[in-house]
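Researcher: Predict the fold of PARP-type domain-containing protein.
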Amino acid sequence: MKRVKTLPFIVSSQPTKVDIRCCGCKSLINSDQLRLGVREYKSSSWFHYVCFWTNCYYRNHLRGVVGNTLAELVDGFSGIPPSDKSRLLTDASSAPSIGRRKSGSKLEIPYEGSEADGDYELDDNTFDLTNLVCCTVTKVQTNLHVSIRKYFVPRGRTCAKPTKYGISLNCEQWNKLELQVDDINSAIATTQKTLKEKEKEKDKKDCKDKNKLPGKEEFPDWILFSLSWKRRVGVFASGEEVVVDIREFSEEKTFSESDRGIRLKPDQWKQLQENINNINKSLRKLS
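Model: Structure tokens for PARP-type domain-containing protein follow.
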């Protein structure tokens, strides 16, 4: 028997004969009112549409989602009216909210060694992305993974070794990343244009929010693409250059970045694109 894939979220505006109570405000939901829900085991937890975005624990897993990815996460999306569909697309495409990061905290811890005179133990399934970052195709039992990871040079040695800093994508996530390359490049061009405009206006603009902490309410100027429920590709300006951040997010009390991810500089992202065909050959060879 073919296994039916269960989507994590559900949306509906169809009338129902059964009373449905909102898990957020605890009041009844009108039978013909737009409602969003989360599937939990064999039942669903329903919310008023507005209550979902304010009270649902998993609300941020539906943030930063664009295009066809929304239909892959939300059951019933294709069946709601166009006006409701447009409303959901607008709300879901906005960036997730995050809490304030503790002062001095960092996602990445510096490690020993330098980039100078470092060689990699390269093989047919490992691809150099420059500056101590490599992409490796691996097979664990029957599962294939594309791992993008930082390397370091141990003291007294010249051969670089992999670190724990990076991310491992399964085949489905890698395919989604490959399909979104053109959109990511468009986002990079848009961000570069915005960055140049900000540099021109920097001396003219009187910033009223000079003392405001960036990132307190949302990801500032991030363009997000979804690879899975928790994994996102972010495009944003870091200093004077635009970077591509492939990362897993965790939701405890707030939707926040985890240490599991990699931040690619422009030359590294370019190298990854140039090696896409070679990476796919390695996946086919190991499958």
